[in-house]
Design goal:
The chain has about 250 residues and is of the alpha+beta class. It contains seven helices and five strands.
């Protein structure tokens, strides 16, 4: 039995840490099970789905939609979103490194251009459509379960019909809707669909395990975009210099 106050405190702290880790693992397990069970029920567009994505991927295995209200005009919010640098976030970096460790991938040390859109297109994503000042749609085909994932762009007119076995098609948006002259709503939606049953089985297990991290990344991006857009309104900066990440 603990014989000193410090030992009692240490034992209590250990128990609380153990309980917290247990709850975290239980929550992760529940999320994985839910993602696995929901996967693959070929869904159609809903009332709040993105019209551009409806064109490029009307049926899909998974979809993630996120949005946030921003106290900045739509043009400022979209510019902040396209300039977002994911490498500024310690949380996103940690999730990416965790995936590398789990899958045995070699760390990607390549230096890419700044900005979300420039960075994504530099690693293989292709722009499928653009509504200037409102939205950009990006897509690629890939095999996400591989340790070193490779993204392959497709022409916009070939994306919807692509059906080569063994791949997953992914399309996502960066969009903004004006609410008023000084307020907007930033939104992002991601859809993915496998091209054959074998790819669907592989992707289902991959998505079940890694979807919690994907969702967290989307939520972090929303916070980053909101903070940067509102900063640009509060303190205009012609050079649009970035501040260090705070998460």
């Amino acid at each position: 039995m603990p014989s000193t106050v410090s030992e009692v405190r240490m034992t209590s702290a250990t128990r609380w840490i153990g309980a917290g880790l247990g709850l975290a693992m239980a929550g992760y397990g529940a999320t994985v099970c839910a993602a696995y069970l929901r996967f693959g029920r070929r869904r159609r567009q809903t009332r709040d789905s993105d019209p551009w994505l409806d064109r490029f991927m009307p049926l899909y295995d998974i979809a993630e939609r996120h949005r946030v209200r921003v106290s900045a005009p739509a043009s400022v919010t979209l510019a902040a979103a396209l300039d977002t640098d994911l490498e500024e976030s310690a949380i996103i970096g940690g999730i990416i490194r965790a995936r590398e460790l789990v899958l045995g991938a070699r760390p990607d040390r390549r230096l890419g251009p700044d900005g979300l859109l420039a960075r994504m297109t530099s690693i293989g994503w292709g722009v499928l459509a653009e509504d200037p000042g409102r939205e950009v749609v990006v897509g690629a085909v890939t095999q996400p379960w591989l340790p070193e994932v490779v993204f392959r762009p497709l022409p916009a007119d070939a994306f919807a019909a692509f059906a080569e076995p063994g791949f997953v098609k992914i399309a996502w948006t960066v969009g903004v809707d004006p609410v008023s002259a000084s307020t907007s709503e930033f939104r992002t939606e991601t859809r993915a669909v496998a091209t054959d049953p074998t790819a669907r089985r592989k992707f289902r297990w991959y998505w079940a395990r890694f979807s919690p991290g994907v969702v967290i990344i989307r939520q972090v991006v929303l916070r980053m975009v909101k903070a940067e857009a509102e900063r640009r309104i509060a303190r205009p900066d012609p050079a649009l210099g970035r501040r260090p990440a705070t998460d």
